[in-house]
Structure formats: C-alpha cells, structure tokens
C-alpha cells in the first residue's frame, strides 16, 4: 500500500518545463566581377596556366576566380577555356554554393550561367577541404565558339561570380540579459546648459541675458550655425541681441535646443489655462521657424491644432500662413469655414488681425466657404419651392422650418 501511494503522488507531480531550441542554416552571400582584358594576349600561355582575379571575402573566407585560357587539362588539347572559383584562405570543410556567369556583352542578356542557387542539390553544398580547393568547369566554353560570340567584346571577357558560404547556428532560450540604460543625452546637455560651464556666447532678449554654447547651437540650428560660424556671421559673436522675441519664449527655445523636449509649460507660465498654452505655442512657432528648428515647429503645430477655438483660430491661421505650416493652415481653414463657426470667428479681434496681416487669406477663405456650400447643395439634392400658403408647387402641404 505504501508503494502504491508513492507512485500515485509521483504521477501527480508537475511536468518539467518544455525547453526549445532552433538550428538555423543559411548562406552568407557575396559577389565579385572579374574583367579579363586583352584576351587574345592570354592565349598560348600553356595548359594549366591561369590568370586570377583579386581575392575577395565572403563568409569570413577569401576567394578568387581562376581563368585558364588554354584549359586546365592536357587531354582537352587547348580546345576549351576553363573557369573555377578557388578558396584562397585556410579552411577545413568550407561548405558553399557557387555561381559562375559569363556575361553577354551585346546587351541581349543571353548570359552563360552555371549555378547551385535556386535548385535542389542531390548531395548538398560543395565542400572545400583546404586552401586552393576549387569548384568550376574544365570545359567551360569551347575556344572557337567563344572567340566569335557576344561574350567577347573589345578583346575582353566579363565574369561574374556568386559565393554563398553555408553557416549554421543553434538558438535556444536565454537565461540571461544585460540591461541597456535609456539614453540620457538630452539630460546631459541640459545639465551643461544649467551649469553654465564652457558657455561662450551671451544673448540679450527683452532685457534679460542668457548664456549658451556656440557649438551646441550651431549643431542644432542652421540659422545659428550661419550666424556664429558662417562667412557672413555677426561681427560680435560673443554677445548677441535678439529682437522681436520675449524672454520666456527664448528660454523655452534654449531648453528645447539642449533637451530636445519642451519644459513643463504649466510651471513656465504659472497656469494650466488652455488659452495661455495656445498663446505660448503661437509665439514659439514663430521662434522655431525663425531658427529652422523643424521638430519644434512640428510640435507647436500639433499643440495649436489641438487648441483651436473660436477665439484663437484666426491668429493661428495667420501664423500658419506666415510660417508655411500647410497642414495647420488646412485645419484652420476647415474650422473657420464651417457654417457654425464662421460668423463667430469674424467677430473676434483675431479676425481683424488676420485681415490686416494676411489679406490674401480672405480670398482663400471665401473660396473654401464656396466649395463647402456647393458640396452641401449637391449632397442635399434639389430643394422644393415653397409657396406663401405653405404648399409646394404640387399642392402638397409642407412643414416650414424655423431659422
């Protein structure tokens, strides 16, 4: 009874976990082109004598192409040319697939190709045992036919070869890993800016001064690069005054240049007001375009798109036009032109600014509204003509709409 109980308990014990591994065999491929110029001068060199290509590396081994103008074997009596690929470095049982192509130089594409690739090999890949081992053809081409063919052009032959070295590996589950820290490059540059060490340029913006590093600015902005290092650079590149920009906006600009991200906007402007954030994004868009910071410009466009309202859309539309933000402009036009928004937008101070700063946009807006109206009429179909007594032309009673 005791033995039976032990066996039953063992049978109920959990099975050991299944482990898996995979053997992967594939070829590492490489190509080489060998041009044999002055073919007629190679004839008569003697049976077994060759001209060789430069060595090339595939799969960690060196290879070379050998061309025998008078053939490789005496029994062929110099009637054939021979062509081989040879292992040119030390190796033991190097398994590989080969392809030799004699190029048709007439442009007709009728190349002479001998290839292992793309077909099933009865005995598998070819194996080379030592340096100097070869694969190829003793009777690759009859000389008489070769010399009257399109393979010979300007007394030259062109040979292309492909070598695929067979490699195998076994992959199993990994019981180990080495964690890689996330990049903190932005934090390092931001700390550099905060420390003030090595700063070599001072900016004066709206009465406030900011120090920075010329190389960092020039790396991030092509405008700063030209201003600080270009042939037309400012005479004094140690102290530069920035006009037509408020100091908080320049501070955000510098932060982005070093950190590649925006600071906490709520902390910057002292409020989480959506309208205040939109105002900052509008000013920052102009600054980003001024210094060709395309990623910052795209971030501002995205934030302005999210913050479109009746009161902000007109100014945002004007900025989109002035700073070539075509996607943002399209979104603004669509918002303004909608029947439920148009009248309200036209009564805002922003619309007055739009008329003054970008009068040409009014024409585009009218065209957009006209297209929307035309589409609306087509979509709704022909309207019925309603008479004064509430009947249509067919005498049927219709219900009047309140407008």
UniProtKB/TrEMBL annotation:
Pathway: Protein modification; protein ubiquitination. Signal peptide: none annotated. Residues 199-266 form the BTB domain. Transmembrane segments: none annotated. GO terms for biological process: cellular response to salt stress; protein ubiquitination. Residues 29-163 form the MATH domain. It holds the Pfam family MATH_2. Gene3D superfamilies: 1.25.40.420, Apoptosis, Tumor Necrosis Factor Receptor Associated Protein 2, Chain A, Potassium Channel Kv1.1, Chain A. SMART domains: BTB, MATH. May act as a substrate-specific adapter of an E3 ubiquitin-protein ligase complex (CUL3-RBX1-BTB) which mediates the ubiquitination and subsequent proteasomal degradation of target proteins. This is LOW QUALITY PROTEIN: BTB/POZ and MATH domain-containing protein 1.
């Amino acid at each position: 009874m005791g033995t039976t109980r032990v066996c039953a308990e063992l049978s109920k014990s959990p099975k050991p976990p299944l482990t898996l591994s995979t053997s992967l065999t594939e070829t590492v491929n490489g190509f080489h082109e060998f041009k044999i110029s002055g073919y007629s001068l190679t004839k008569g060199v003697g049976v077994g004598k060759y001209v060789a290509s430069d060595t090339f590396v595939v799969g960690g081994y060196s290879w070379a192409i050998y061309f025998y103008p008078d053939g490789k074997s005496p029994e062929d009596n110099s009637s054939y040319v021979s062509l081989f690929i040879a292992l040119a470095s030390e190796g033991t049982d190097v398994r590989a697939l080969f392809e030799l192509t004699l190029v048709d130089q007439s442009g007709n594409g009728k190349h002479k190709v001998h290839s292992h690739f793309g077909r099933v090999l009865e005995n598998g890949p070819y194996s080379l045992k030592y340096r100097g081992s070869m694969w190829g053809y003793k009777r690759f081409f009859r000389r008489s036919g070769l010399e009257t063919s399109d393979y010979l052009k300007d007394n030259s032959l062109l040979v292309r070869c492909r070598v695929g070295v067979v490699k195998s590996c076994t992959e199993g589950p990994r019981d180990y890993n080495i964690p890689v820290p996330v990049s903190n490059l932005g934090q390092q540059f931001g700390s550099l800016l905060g420390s003030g060490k090595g700063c070599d340029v001072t900016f004066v913006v709206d009465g406030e001064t900011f120090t920075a590093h010329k190389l960092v600015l020039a790396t991030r902005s092509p405008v700063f690069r030209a201003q600080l290092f270009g042939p037309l650079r400012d005479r004094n590149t140690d102290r530069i005054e920035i006009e037509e920009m408020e100091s908080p906006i320049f501070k955000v600009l510098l932060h982005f240049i070093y950190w590649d991200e925006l600071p906490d906007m709520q902390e910057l402007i002292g409020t989480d007001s959506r309208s205040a954030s939109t105002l900052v994004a509008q000013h920052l868009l102009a600054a980003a375009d001024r210094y060709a910071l395309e990623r910052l410009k795209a971030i501002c466009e995205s934030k302005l798109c999210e913050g479109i309202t009746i009161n902000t859309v007109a100014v945002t539309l004007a900025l989109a036009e002035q700073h070539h933000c075509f996607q943002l402009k399209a979104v603004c036009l669509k918002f303004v032109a909608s029947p439920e928004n148009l009248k309200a937008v036209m009564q805002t101070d922003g619309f007055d600014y739009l008329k003054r700063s970008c009068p040409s946009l009014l024409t585009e807006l009218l065209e957009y509204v006209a297209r929307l109206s035309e589409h609306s009429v087509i979509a709704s179909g022909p309207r019925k003509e309603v008479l004064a007594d509430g009947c249509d032309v067919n005498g049927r009673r219709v219900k009047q709409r309140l407008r």
